[in-house]
Every structure is written in C-alpha cells, then in structure tokens.
Structure to design on (331 residues):
C-alpha cells in the first residue's frame, strides 16, 4: 500500500505575537484593567535601516481584526500581513472595554481623552519592548524605530487626540476621518452642542448615554448605500466583517460624528500627516480635511479609487497599503 505523503503546512510569512499592557492606573474603573492586542512582524529585520512600526487604531464597532482580516476562501485582506511582508512591524490593541481588552464598568465614560491616554501607554510599551528585543525576540533588539500611528474612522479621530496630547508618534495616518463629522446622523440636541464649542466631555457622555439607552433619535438619517462597503465587496467578506464587530465606545463614536470637535487637536500636530479616503467615503471633502493639519509641514492626501469607507475591504486595498508603505519609507 502506497503511503500518502504528508502535506506540510505553508511556511509562515510573518511572525505574530500577543501583547497585553496594564493600564489600571489610568482609568477610573476597578482593576486590574488590561489592554490586549497583537504584533505582526517580518521574519527578519533589516538592521541597516530604521524599522517602521505601524500602531493601529480601529474605528467604531471594529476590533483589531479590521487590520488583520482573515476570510476563509478569500486571501489578501490582512493589512498587517501585507505591511509585515514589506519589512514593517504592525501593532494593534483593542480599545479599553472592547474585544480582547478588559471590560469596564461604564463604557460610556471612556472619552477620547481617556482612550488616548490608554492607547499612548499601550503603544509606548510596545515600542519600548520592540526596541529592547523582548516583544518579538526572533527579531532581536530594534533600537532604530519610526513609529507611525494609523487610525481608521473613529480611530482617526482618536489618533489626532492622542498625537496632540501625548506626541506618541513620528508620523500619523488618518484614514476615513476628516473632521467634518456626520451631521446628517445627529439629533437636534447633538447639533446644538456641536455649534457651541468648546465641547465638554460631560456633555458628550450625557448625549452618548441617551443613544446607549435606545431613546428615539429624532432627526437622524441613514448612510448612503455603498458608503461603508463598495458594492463589489464579496458577500463572504461582508459577513466576516459583521462577525468581527464589537460594542461601540459610545462617547468616542459620538465625538467623531460631531463636526469640527477635534479641529484644535489636528491643528496642533506637527509631524508628517497622511490623510486617506475612499472615493465613495462618508465624506468627500478631501482637501478641507487635509487642510486642518495647519502645523504640519508634510501632508499627503490620497484617495483610493473605487473604495467606500472600509478601505481594507476594497478591491484595490493593496494600492492603499503600498502607498502607505512607500510614504513611511520616506520618513
């Protein structure tokens, strides 16, 4: 009887490691409170040049899976694997209270200021461990790092707050977030608050709590068909995207919907900025969005053809990822 040869599993193209960081001292909740995530890294590092480290911030209702998207029967949807294959390191943490991170007593109390302080701690910890060679031991120490924050949608808003408050990164990339908000989805009460800056955290928390309780949202509308996912996104990919969704950081989500709320933070950012959108994104005011970063002297605007708001699901997603990698290589 002829023996059936064993089939070796495919060799990994990247290294993936888990990471957790204690943020108990930063949050007003009983501890311990941990944020958890992962790192994707190349199989070996090029010690002759700085290593670009992408620190990813997911949008509303999204987990870190958005950046490491795996769809049975459909390959090439992982931004993390793609960038790691180009020699970069990719780090992502679930926002505090969501996904693999610790639950909190009152998720509405997680404001952009709180989330950004937590994310700053998590990202700096990951960067320090990479530099020391303890996070991905196979790569050895990586003393020369270029830290780039990349946030999608609500994550882009949180990125601007984090960079303005904590200066975590050497450069930032905001994808699908421009600052115009989504006034068409706001209630009259929310619009009134947005019209009278500065907006206090307490005001946003109160309004977000109303949304959480399921009160009727009079005056809101529905998104335009095809603005979240383009019509050519396969059905299986759509289903997998729905399966990875998590609860919303309600106060952060609402903040990202209020027009101009983080304009001040954007204007305080001095590092290079990449502003990316899909052709059919939730906002089409691309140039005005880029112009908000008035203190940066290095601004790149890129619009992905054929893409809606969820760029990592778009047919031409690798065009965006390659453009980001090329941009980062010049930093």
């Amino acid at each position: 009887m002829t023996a059936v040869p064993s089939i070796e599993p495919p060799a990994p193209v990247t290294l993936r490691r888990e990471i957790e960081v204690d943020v108990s001292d930063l949050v007003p909740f009983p501890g311990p409170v941990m944020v958890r995530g992962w790192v994707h890294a190349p199989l070996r590092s090029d010690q002759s040049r700085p290593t670009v480290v992408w620190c990813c911030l997911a949008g509303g209702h999204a987990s870190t899976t958005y950046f490491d998207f795996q769809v049975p029967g459909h390959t090439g949807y992982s931004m993390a694997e793609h960038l790691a294959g180009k020699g970069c390191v990719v780090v992502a943490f679930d926002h505090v209270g969501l996904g693999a991170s610790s639950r909190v007593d009152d998720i509405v109390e997680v404001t952009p200021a709180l989330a950004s302080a937590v994310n700053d701690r998590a990202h700096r910890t990951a960067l320090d461990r990479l530099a020391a060679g303890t996070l991905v031991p196979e790569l050895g120490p990586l003393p020369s790092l270029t830290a780039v924050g990349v946030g999608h949608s609500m994550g882009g808003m949180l990125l601007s707050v984090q960079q303005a408050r904590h200066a975590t990164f050497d450069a930032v990339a905001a994808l699908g977030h421009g600052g115009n908000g989504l006034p068409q989805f706001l209630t009259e009460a929310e619009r009134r608050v947005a019209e009278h800056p500065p907006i206090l955290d307490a005001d946003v928390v109160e309004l977000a709590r109303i949304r959480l309780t399921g009160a009727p949202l009079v005056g809101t509308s529905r998104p335009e068909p095809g603005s979240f996912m383009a019509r050519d996104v396969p059905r299986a990919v759509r289903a997998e995207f729905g399966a990875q969704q998590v609860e919303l950081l309600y106060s952060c989500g609402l903040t990202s919907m209020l027009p101009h709320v983080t304009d001040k933070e954007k204007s305080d950012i001095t590092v290079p900025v990449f502003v990316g959108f899909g052709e059919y994104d939730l906002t089409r005011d691309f140039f005005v969005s880029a112009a908000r970063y008035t203190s940066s002297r290095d601004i790149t605007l890129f619009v992905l053809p054929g893409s809606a708001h969820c760029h990592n699901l778009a047919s031409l997603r690798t065009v965006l990822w390659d453009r980001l990698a090329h941009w980062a290589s010049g930093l």
Observations:
- The first strand starts at residue 15 and ends at 22.
- The first helix runs from residue 79 to 84.
- Strands lie at 15-22, 34-41, 51-57, 89-93, 145-152, 171-175, 273-278, 299-304.
- Residues 50 and 144 are 5 Å apart (CA to CA).
